[in-house]
Amino acid sequence: MADASLRVKNLSKSFGGLKAVQDVSLEVAHGSLTALIGPNGAGKTTLFALMSGFLTPDSGSVFFGGGDITGRAPHLNARLGMTRTFQIVQPFATQTVRQNIAVGTHLHLQGRHAALHDAERIAEQVGLSAQIDKLASSLTVAGRKRLELARALAARPRLLLLDEVLAGLNPQEIAEMIPVVRGIAQGGVTVLMIEHVMQAVMNLAEHVWVLAQGRLIAQGSPLEVTSNEKVIEAYLGHGTAARLRAAELGRLAP
Amino acid sequence: MTGAAKDLAGIFLFALATAGIAQFTDSGVTLNFVMMALYAALLAQAWNILGGFGGQFSFGHALFFGTGAYIQAMAQLHGGVNPWLALLLAVAGAATIGMAVGALSFRYGLKGSYFALVTLAFAEVFRILALSVPFTGAGVGLMLPLGESFANMQFGSRKGYLYLVLGLVTVALLITCWLKHSRFGAYLQAVRDNEDAARAVGVNPFSIKLGAICLSSALMGAGGAFYVQVFQYIDPAIAFGPGTSVEALVAAIVGGIGTLWGPVLGAVVLHVLADVTRNLFGQLPGINMVIYGVVLVVIVMFLPRGIGGLAATARSLWNKPGRTDRTGVGRG
What is the mean pLDDT of residues A114-120? Predict the structure, then answer.
């Protein structure tokens, strides 16, 4: 499979006075499963939008598979092999699950019959086979998340950007979804996922980037970043790391 | 492809049955009714391609109707062009105007009521232009000289016109059938339902919507050309006035937008209704528009998927009391 690495260099984007993404540089290695984490409002979704072409950066560049794709329209990026899902699910509500997925399979299949047929394979992959001829609007939250994933997969991506596919799911649904995501990565798709569910990040990701207030503050293996003081403070507030350390010491020394 | 085969069979039967009515009836009233209902179905189906399948609600489809009508008249009067050839020119001209308006509107991402207002404004601009320049005959309009012959596209009885418009409606139905069962149609409905989601999987909304407005305006232009041949007269108010725009969209919405048969059903229902009101109220001017307005409000409130979606709406009401699907777009 062709190179599906993603590289972002000095990317910045402001909305009026709000600097949503500031001077972010990161890399997603070909064939890896990488996570992007950070507190609410850190700019993760904005960064996704900048990478996939839904937003144009104020400065900086995006490279996909070695080529510069900065500011290229999302549909062209999808044709190059980069697709994304949305944090707030975006189903084609008046259409069935099969028709929804077929919009994705059509990218590589011209014929209607072939596209609708190929949708079955994708539905099976994400566990939507039983609902395939139901209306997308009739699905539960978990079902819609799966549909979001299915439609992106249907476009046969080399690089898949997953924006919180586990948000809003209960623990059992999360446990069911984790193997699906792992299966996609093992199938040879490079995955970059935004995720708040740390159970999934620890379980799945090989490498983690941490974004806070628009800036990258840490990177490394899941264990490395979760013990990083900057990361703990970004999530739990200034001074927390010191207090946690003191508490830990207090427990160790009787 | 059983779905597509079924739809094609339906279109074939519809064309055959309608031709049968025409063949075995000599009643002028019946023939006139069928012809006018088919003509309304043509306009409604044209609107449905952009409004129903594409979700772009135009309030100025008269722009394309009028363009087709004027080209049909002017090509014959000023250019001496054969009316059959003029019909092709009218279709091409209307599609070109459609493409220009679409390129301007969709390039700047106009949607919803903004798109509706822009189309209305373009239609009004053309109405005023047609009133002002000499080659459209200004306010007096253009009149085609009488000359009954097949080559002249002027027929002795309503039957000839009926077959002509039946042919055009069949073409419109075939295009709609193609939309239902093709990648282009799937992309068009995806863009209607959620533009960003469609972009994420490789759909270019601009080119898809542009294609839809071209098809839609081409059929509307054919409607305008047909009008000129039947009535042998066109003036700016008929060509570009809001009446035609309203008729096209009301028939489509009443019947059920985004469906193959909805616009045909809507056109027939509205024409029955118009005939009934004419008998009740006589020729009170504008009464049919009042009725159309009332019907439109009732349909939008209680039957968002139109009369064609009545069965499905009833089912969903039965299953989920108090919860209706108000997305306003039908399936399939």
Answer: 94
Can you give the residue ranges of every domain in chain B? 32-242
SS3 A218: strand
C-beta separation of B39 from B246 below 8 A: no
Q: If phi over 0 gives left and psi between -120 and 50 gives alpha, with beta otherwise, what is residue B328?
A: left
Domains and CATH numbers, chain A: 6-252 (3.40.50.300)
Nearest to B51 by CA among B225, B323, B313, B255: B255
Interface of A with B in 15-54 (CB under 8 A): 52, 54
Q: Give A232-242 pLDDT, tens digit per residue.
A: 888 888 777 77
Name the residue among B189, B201, B258 with its Cβ closest to that of A107.
Answer: B201
Residues of A in contact with B196 (CB under 8 A): 54, 74, 86, 90
Where does the pLDDT of residue B331 fall: very low under 50, low under 70, confident under 90, or very high at 90 and above? Answer: very low
Distance of CA A171 to CAs A110, A174, B40, Å? 39, 5, 56
* Interstrand relation of B142-143 and B233-234 (parallel, antiparallel or unpaired): antiparallel
Hey, what are B12's tokens?
A: 């074939």
Q: Which residues of B fall below an 8 Å CB-CB distance to A?
A: 1, 4, 181-183, 186-187, 189-190, 193-194, 196-205, 258, 325, 327, 329-331
Say if the Cβ atoms of A75 and B187 lie within 8 Å.
no
- List, in sequence order, the alpha helices (H) in chain A: 44-52, 74-80, 97-105, 112-126, 141-154, 171-186, 198-204, 222-226, 229-236, 240-252
Cα angle at B31 between B290 and B221, to 5 degrees?
Answer: 65
Q: Which residue of B has its CA nearest to A152?
A: B201
Is residue A39 a contact partner of residue A45, using CB atoms and an 8 Å limit? Answer: no
Q: Give the residue-averaged pLDDT of B28-33.
A: 90
Nearest to A100 by CA among A150, A31, A49, A46: A150
Chain CA centroid to CA B15, Å: 18
b/e per residue, A89-123, with b = 16+ CB within 10 A?
bbbbbbbbbbbbbbbbbbbebeebeebbebbeebb
Using CB atoms, pick whichever of A74, A96, A135 lies closest to residue B200: A74
Q: What's the rounded Cα separation, in Å, for the pair B97 and A43?
A: 43
